[in-house]
Structure of NADH-quinone oxidoreductase subunit E:
Amino acid sequence: MSTREPVAIPFGPRPEERVQLVRPGARRTYPEDVLARLEADAATIVARYPRARSAIIPILHLLQAEDGYLTPAAIDFCSHTLDLTGAEVAAVATFYSMYRREPTGDYLVGVCTNTLCAVMGGDAVHEALVDHLDGVTDGTVTLEHIECNAACDYAPVVMVNWEFFDNQTPESARTLVDELRAGRPVTPTRGATLCTFRETSRILAGFPDTRPGALDAPTAGEATLAGLRVAREKGMRAPDHAEPDAAATAEPPTDSTPDKPAPAPSADVPHTDGAAAKEARP
């Protein structure tokens, strides 16, 4: 008998990890007035889709706008509204990084530390903000790492409520969060003056952004438009669309016909009895 001790392997996240959908103090149900309002908004969203379950992404943004993060009440509401299981809703809610699973401040400040932003100083920006915000618990700013947001031409990039602040330094990032905490209007490098995280979530759910001038703000910077400008100066353009020939659109050959069962693994192997098989062995 082996004298080795058994090894216990725990599955799932540890209770202290910041990924739990069920947290102390998280809302389990909605008050009647909140529920009625959410049902009306959800009906507006679901009506845009041929199948109700297709509305899960904007519905989750709508629910995140209610509490600033997704709660058990949000999962239950989404499950009931879209006729999905709680597991199906939770799978989506925990897959996409834009869905929060813990209380979030009015401004979600994300610092990109992927390769190019890190090389250009993203790690230094993040470290500076960690030190600068140490002990801040007033609910105005939540700081996190973010993955690449396709703004490498402006590295290092900080995003606040998913709006870009380009070419940041530790000093400019500290000034940015101080302005946010002071309640002053802050305008990103590209985009409209910031609104709160909950207001942003409602916009992402598909409801109109009614802020004056919000839709007129620039959305692209000079570095992004440089290639387009050069192409226009040189008269460059994409080739005209041409009808593909029959050979190009032919279905590629497949190993089996979908409407026919695949042959058994040994269908083309001659049958041999046990004795013959033994004689054939080396």
